[in-house]
Amino acid sequence: MVVDIYVNYDCDLSSANIFERLVDIVSKIARGRQAFEIGATPNQLRGIRTKGLECLVCILKCMVEWSKDLYVNPHLQAQVSQPTIVTSSPMITVEKS
Length: 97
Known about the structure:
- By secondary structure, the protein is mostly helical.
- The protein has one domain.
- It contains 5 helices and 2 strands.
- It has a two-stranded antiparallel sheet with strand order 1-2.
- A hairpin with a 4-residue loop joins strand 1 and strand 2.
- The longest helix has 26 residues.
- The two termini are 42 Å apart.
- The relative contact order is 0.10.
């Protein structure tokens, strides 16, 4: 669902940035500003901040999992695209990759 919100509402220039607003609100919760302003106890503040951070981590995990198929590591791509050199002598053939 997180990825669908991002793809359907934040990637379209004419749509509202719902994902951006969601992450902004959750990051404020993780910083504990709203809880502090309403008079939360230190234990409540710690719990709210922890839940906010856990939520941000879950959002990031969703995005990473979704993007795994889209990302091509340039370092691996360079190793794969190097030609194989074959040297032959009358008795030995050596392949280097």
